[in-house]
Structures are given as structure tokens and as C-alpha cells.
Automatic annotation (TrEMBL):
This is EF-hand domain-containing protein. PANTHER family: MIP22305P, PHOSPHATASE 2A REGULATORY SUBUNIT-RELATED. The B regulatory subunit might modulate substrate selectivity and catalytic activity, and might also direct the localization of the catalytic enzyme to a particular subcellular compartment. GO terms for molecular function: calcium ion binding; protein phosphatase regulator activity. Keywords: Calcium, Metal-binding. GO terms for cellular component: protein phosphatase type 2A complex. The keyword Metal-binding applies. It comes from the Eukaryota. It comes from Glossina brevipalpis. Residues 279-314 form the EF-hand domain. The keyword Cytoplasm does not apply.
Length: 405
């Protein structure tokens, strides 16, 4: 016997993981709009330039058009056909009712077992931005830059959105990010550099120039010696070695087991974003992985001493007196305030507002000395501008000045 009140309407909650379905009447109205729009085109087919008119009826953003075109064209014809589009629209509405699940459905071309997107799925969308966005019109002729820009944007998207480090952006990760809002913003904002996240040309230019400086043979791969030259040898050799150990890179690009590991351009994008803004969740995870030598999920006092030892040696070699490790350790523990003073966890570092100072102390001599010369707590920082945005703006100005000279 179950009491009647257990059946009250408040007891039932329908769960819609992919959004709440639209009323049938709304779907039918949209379908009629799609059919009548296709009727106005020859052979009921539309080109990519005409497709946004159909997408508008469906409530889909302008820059979803190339993934939709690829989904709905016959034999790479470059034409979306009415029947194929209607099938796609009906099928998608059976499963997907919110923007994130629709985006994944479209980019995975309706593969039901795929609830994630891969880096290559984004190539047609970002290439379309290169081809048509007014803010990138000057890139039209410079085709050698197209692929570099596309891969930079995709690497930045995965860096920020793929919080699980899996190499696959899930629907849940997409919902927690602002990626879809930014893709929609692209059709409203003509100045691509105003869109700081992912698509800024200025940011791409800074990243690519930094890589080009290090990649002496221009094979789009750099080794440990190349990376050690970054920012005038600011990083310790021990941290550079850890970066190449595989703890933060996808693969080591070795053709033979005896070859030295090399870093790809995509991995360099992750490195530079992490190096220039150590406050972001991905950057904190990046450097934590590098410093966690035994992979046990905590930074032990031994590991901290291992990295600080080289910092001390480097300071001594240039005639700067260094703090003994014990004194430095006390400072760091007071700053981080770990729950257990014998080890520092990832959670401890994410809770602390001074984590960037912590990391620089152990492996970036230039930034460590910079922090030492000023009180980091007293520094006024514009909360609306990230460390990365500030760095990219300064570096872009320097690059343009050098070119003009």
C-alpha cells in the first residue's frame, strides 16, 4: 500500500539530458517553413551561401552551416538537398533538443554512439570562419596561414572546454563552456580581435610567432633544446624535461623508439597558454602534472625540493642570493595553506589565489624574480583581463613594432 500523496505531481520530475522536447506543433511549423524555403531554390537544393536562410528558420547559428552542409549534401556536391535536410532535421529532433546535444549530433554526422566531438570535427566550421568572416578578409590570399589559424583555434577550444583532458569534448563539457555562445557571436561581431576567446587573430599571431622562433628547421616540431630557449631560457631544464615526459603531451612524435621526443604545434599551444596564465584550471592541472614526478596525485616535499634545487643553482650562477629551501617551503605552505602540510594537492592549488607565484617559484626564474621584487598581494590586477589576454596584447604590439621597424 502506497499513500496517495506519493503520487502528487511534485513527486515526478522528468529528466531531459538533451533538453526538453519542443511541442509537436512548433516542430511542424518549422518543418513547413523548411519545405517552403527549399521550394524557392532550383531543384530544391541550396548552396552553402544560401543555407543560412534555412538555418535561420531552424534557429541554428550561421557558422554551423559547413557541418550541416557536410551532413546534408550528396556525394560532396556542395549542395544541401531538401529530402536529406528534412531527414536530418526530423532525426535530430528525436534525440536532441538543446544546442549542445544538437552541435555534437551535427559535428559527429548523426553517429548515435558518439556523444562527443573530436578536434578534426571542428575543422570545417573554423575553416568557414577563415573563408568568410569580415575580420579575417585580409587572410584570404595568405592560404599558408589558414591551416595554422584553424589548428590554433581548435587547440585553444580543447584547452578550455575539454576539462577531462580526454581529447574528446563531451556534451556535458560543452554545456559548461561558452563555446556555442562565442560561435554565435562570430556572426554579430565584425572585429575578430574583439572575440578574445579562441578566434582572435592577434592571439593566433602571437602563438604562431612564438613557435616559429623556436622551430628552427620549421618542420612544425620542436625538441627540448628548442623549448628551453623560450622566453630567454626562463624555464628550468627539469621542468622542460617533464613537459617532454608525456605527462602533458598527447604523443612524443617519435618515428623510432631511439629518437628524441618532439612537441607538436598543438602541444605548444597548450604549453604557451599554461605558461603565460597559470591561474586557469587547465594551467594549474598542467603544471601540477609536471611537478608530480611519481604521479601519486600530491606534491611531496621531495618533489618541491627537486625543482627548487635547480632554481637555487641558477640564481647562484648569476650572483643572486637564494632563500634556503626550508625558508622557501615555509613561505609556500603559508601561501597555499594546504589541508595537509606534508603534501600539496591539486585542490589546494585551485583554492589558492596565488598559485601562479607558487609555480614560478619552482621553475620559472624570470617570473620568480619578478614576483620577488614586488609584493604580489599589493599588485592591483584588472579582474576583467586575464593574464593571457594581457600577455597577448603586449606581445602583439611588440611584434607589430618590430615589423614596422
Amino acid at each position: 500500500y502506497i499513500e496517495r500523496e506519493n503520487y502528487s505531481s511534485s513527486s515526478f520530475r522528468f529528466y531531459f539530458p538533451h533538453g526538453k522536447p519542443q511541442p509537436t506543433i512548433a516542430l511542424e511549423r518549422t518543418l513547413r517553413g523548411i519545405l517552403s524555403a527549399f521550394d524557392t531554390f532550383p531543384n530544391n537544393q541550396v548552396t552553402k551561401d544560401e543555407l543560412p536562410r534555412i538555418l535561420k528558420i531552424c534557429g541554428l547559428p550561421f557558422y554551423w552551416r559547413m557541418p550541416v552542409m557536410i551532413f546534408c549534401q550528396q556525394h560532396n556536391s556542395g549542395l544541401a538537398e531538401r529530402q536529406k535536410f528534412v531527414e536530418f532535421w526530423k532525426q535530430m529532433n528525436v534525440y536532441c533538443h538543446d544546442a549542445a546535444s544538437r552541435f555534437v549530433y551535427i559535428l559527429s554526422r548523426g553517429q548515435r554512439y558518439r556523444n562527443y566531438i573530436l578536434p578534426e570535427d571542428l575543422i570545417p566550421l573554423v575553416q568557414d570562419v577563415v573563408d568568410t568572416h569580415p575580420g579575417l578578409a585580409f587572410l584570404k590570399e595568405a592560404t599558408e596561414f589558414h591551416s595554422r589559424y584553424v589548428h590554433t583555434v581548435i587547440a585553444r577550444i580543447f584547452y578550455s572546454v575539454n576539462r577531462s583532458w580526454s581529447g574528446k569534448i563531451s556534451i556535458a563539457e560543452l554545456k559548461k563552456s561558452d563555446l556555442l555562445e562565442i560561435i554565435t557571436l562570430l556572426e554579430e561581431e565584425d572585429d575578430i580581435n574583439q572575440i578574445m576567446a579562441f578566434f582572435s587573430y592577434e592571439h593566433f599571431y602571437v602563438i604562431y610567432c612564438k613557435f616559429w622562433e623556436l622551430d628552427k628547421d620549421h618542420d612544425l616540431l620542436i625538441n627540448q633544446d628548442d623549448l628551453s630557449r623560450h622566453s630567454d631560457h626562463a624555464l628550468s631544464s627539469r621542468i622542460v624535461e617533464r613537459i617532454f615526459s608525456g605527462c602533458v603531451t598527447r604523443n612524443d612524435n617519435r618515428k623510432n623508439p631511439d629518437d628524441e621526443p618532439k612537441m607538436s604545434y598543438t602541444d605548444f599551444v597548450w604549453f604557451l597558454l599554461s605558461e603565460e596564465d597559470k591561474r586557469t584550471p587547465t594551467a594549474i592541472e598542467y603544471w601540477f602534472r609536471c611537478m608530480d614526478l611519481d604521479g601519486d596525485g600530491v606534491l611531496s616535499m621531495y618533489e618541491l625540493e627537486f625543482f627548487y634545487e635547480e632554481q637555487q643553482q641558477r640564481m647562484e650562477s648569476i650572483g643572486i642570493e637564494s632563500l634556503p629551501f626550508e625558508d622557501c617551503l615555509c613561505q609556500m605552505l603559508d601561501m597555499i595553506k594546504p589541508q595537509n602540510r606534508d603534501a600539496i594537492t591539486l585542490g589546494d592549488l585551485k583554492r589558492c589565489k596565488m598559485t601562479h607565484v607558487f609555480f614560478d617559484t619552482f621553475f620559472n626564474l624570470e617570473k620568480y624574480l619578478d614576483h620577488e621584487q614586488r609584493d604580489p598581494f599589493a599588485t592591483q590586477r584588472d579582474e576583467y583581463v586575464s593574464d593571457w589576454d594581457r600577455f597577448a596584447a603586449q606581445e602583439y604590439e611588440l611584434l607589430i613594432t618590430e615589423e614596422n621597424d
